[in-house]
Amino acid sequence: MLSRVVSCLPGLWSSWCALLHRAMDHARAAISNLFGGEPMSYTRFSIARQTDGDNSHVEMKLSADDEEGGEIGRPEHLHATMPPPRRNGKNLCFLIMASVLLLLIGFLIGYLSYRGRMQNVSRCLDGSGKCEMTPTASYLSDDDETEEEEVPGPRVLYWPDLRAMLSDKLSTAQLEANLRQREGKTSFEAGKVEDETTASYIHDQFTSFRLDEVWNDEHYIKLQDKGSSNNQVSTEQNGVEEVLESPNAYVAYSKTGTVVGKPVHVNYGLKDDFEKIRNLGVSMNGTIVIFRAGKITLAEKVANAREEGAVGALMYLDPFEYKYTEKLVPFAHAHLGTGDPFTPGFPSFNHTQFPPVESSGLPRIPVQTISSEAASKLFSKMDGHTCLLEWKSGIMGCKVTVSPTSKMTVKLTVNNVMVDRKILNIFGAIKGFEEPGNNSCLVADSYVVIGAQRDSWGPGAAKAGVGTAILLELARVISDIVKKDGYKPRRSIIFASWSAGEFGAVGATEWLEGYSTSLHAKAFTYINLDAAVLGSNHMKISASPLLYSLLERTMKGVKDPTKDSGSLYNRVGSAWMDKVVSLDLDNAAFPFLAYSGIPVVSFGFCNKDEEYAFLGTTGDTMMNLKKIDKLYALMRAAAEVAGQVALRLTHDHELFLDFDRYSEELLSFQERFLSFDEEVKALGLTLNWLFFARGDFQRAADALRRDIANSDKENRIVRRALNDRMMKVEYDFLSPFLSPKDAPFRHIFFGKGSHTLPSLLENLKQLRDNKDSVDVNTLKEQLALVTWTIKGAANALVGDIWNTDNEF
């Protein structure tokens, strides 16, 4: 056999050359097709779309030879006619010899590459190199068993194992010990001694957990404190003044001074409530309005009252919803925004000087909270309309206003003072690791943030204590999983303890403002732990649509602590996404989503038909909190949900962000907009461009999903590029046409202002009800801003917009 092979050698070279010549012919033909003037096509997204999302390609020919191409609109690449390859009659043995040589060369290259990799692995594992291997597998479903290359070293932590490990390590006893730090304390007001002491304790705990980094973040802010004397609410009639209440509680950022006006009760202070009062023929100009707590924040209630011409505002806890609170007066703030209102849009760093400026969200009128007992006394002095039956007030004799002949007025005096305070945000980080390269490991620069408010005006057991206790327990457990059990998260986890949350998420917002240029590219999720347990028979959930799928899967895997069997998913039901509530301004997750464009999840246990009565009052004590059935079991369940979400986002190759959900959200808005099509056409406008942009986003999402499905998950560069595209989805829904200083909450779904989709929908409803009340130019601008924001999000999602059908 060997002699036969040797006999073939004389003709080997000529046959080898023939093979190379043939390959060169094919290469020259391909290059000629690409660059030599042969017909070629490409596609790109266009705003001129069908409203149903079809016809996604608009073909552009670079040659006039249409007769050789496919149908217009199909991305077919045309090929030139190839000359037949030259043939020769050389002996077949030359082909055999060429195959043998190629096989030997391939074997040598593979051996050398494998030997090099094993040397790198050895260096990583024995500590002599610069990196450690990442033994973490990646899965998008819990039961996947995709095999990875076996590497000596720590065992691979598959997701079911990691999830079970988290559940086993979480301790109700440790959660109880963490919460006990609130025992016997009366106040943790931001920037004061108890707040700083707690900050120091959290810093020490993070250090003891052996987190990779622990640091403080200082901010110097302006807060409003109670003056030397309590604020006062009284009535005046026939020259006689009677004090109704002079509480210790106050409303931060209220305007100071004294105002007098007739009282008008407006239920929750919603816009609809004000409209109902107007329909009763009651003018609110120059009045002091009264409303009950709930539905919306105090700041929003006050803003609505100011629009109606009120000169002052009072709020109380109605016994119908807040039981056993007749004598309690809540603390609150009246800033319609988040962060320090005296550095709007800017971080309050000590070394930065800004010109004097105030947030447009400051109330500009005096505001005070009162007890329901004081409200009842006030109603007894009013002789006008009784409260509407639909209000379901818990106060007997509830009144709307006084009669036109009544001389009774309300006098409100606010003595608050402005103070400068230093606040501390405390951070601890577990660093993540990408898959290692040839000789070194890449430290991840993307991270999930888990945060909780630390400060409170009163004891704050439920408001801040529960979240802080869960934060500490998650830091302890996850660090233990990493340091002792060998889990190497692909991405980092940051634990954050915020201060000045009571004043409107000030600590969180100042941090976001300080790093606004980079956070959206690095922080891909914020998990909020504030007020995680306020009851036991219901769950309240707020989240970005990007996290719906992950949250649903997580709830299916966490046991319901209030039942013998079943998961949290069984509690909330399959239609839970229809019940997701909007984030309010007081929620620390709100600025992450609406200001920075970072996906968020905020959830908590509560009671379905009644509020936690003591939130934000001096009654928020450990004694009252412990009245919640299975308190510590519920805290553990909340910790497990938050921990699973964080670990899953750091475990998989692919970021668990469901960008397809936004396609559904946009389609839902389109369906609602369609009913106003005729009214819009009557103004000479059209909604089609908005619908086309929605179709573009749908196609871009489909394209990204295909790219992910067809990608190599082990290719670190490709994987990171795809994850980066997913991370930008939320951020790209921030309107780029507005200044973050003037309109900080730019998110078109969840922000505040005329640029949002809900605001556009509201104006379209107003157009139907009263055409003359709508400014056509304003409506045009709204349509344009929303359309181009969605269009820009589609372009960003598809990646390389210059070559969206990148077959080359």
UniProtKB/TrEMBL annotation:
Stearoylated. Pfam families: PA (PF02225), Peptidase_M28 (PF04389), TFR_dimer (PF04253). Coiled coil: none annotated. GO terms for molecular function: transferrin receptor activity. Residues 256-320 form the PA domain. It is a single-pass type II membrane protein. PANTHER family: N-ACETYLATED-ALPHA-LINKED ACIDIC DIPEPTIDASE, TRANSFERRIN RECEPTOR PROTEIN 1. Homodimer; disulfide-linked. Residues 686-797 form the Transferrin receptor-like dimerisation domain. SUPFAM superfamilies: PA domain, Transferrin receptor-like dimerisation domain, Zn-dependent exopeptidases. The chain crosses the membrane at residues 92-114. Residues 64-84 are annotated as: Disordered. This is Transferrin receptor protein 1. Belongs to the peptidase M28 family. M28B subfamily. GO terms for biological process: intracellular iron ion homeostasis; receptor internalization; transferrin transport. It is found in: Cell membrane; Melanosome. GO terms for cellular component: external side of plasma membrane; melanosome. Its main location: membrane. Cellular uptake of iron occurs via receptor-mediated endocytosis of ligand-occupied transferrin receptor into specialized endosomes. Endosomal acidification leads to iron release. The apotransferrin-receptor complex is then recycled to the cell surface with a return to neutral pH and the concomitant loss of affinity of apotransferrin for its receptor. Transferrin receptor is necessary for development of erythrocytes and the nervous system. Acts as a lipid sensor that regulates mitochondrial fusion by regulating activation of the JNK pathway. Keywords: Cell membrane, Disulfide bond, Endocytosis, Glycoprotein, Lipoprotein, Membrane, Palmitate, Phosphoprotein, Receptor, Signal-anchor, Transmembrane, Transmembrane helix. Residues 440-627 form the Peptidase M28 domain. It comes from the Eukaryota. It comes from Lepidothrix coronata (blue-crowned manakin).
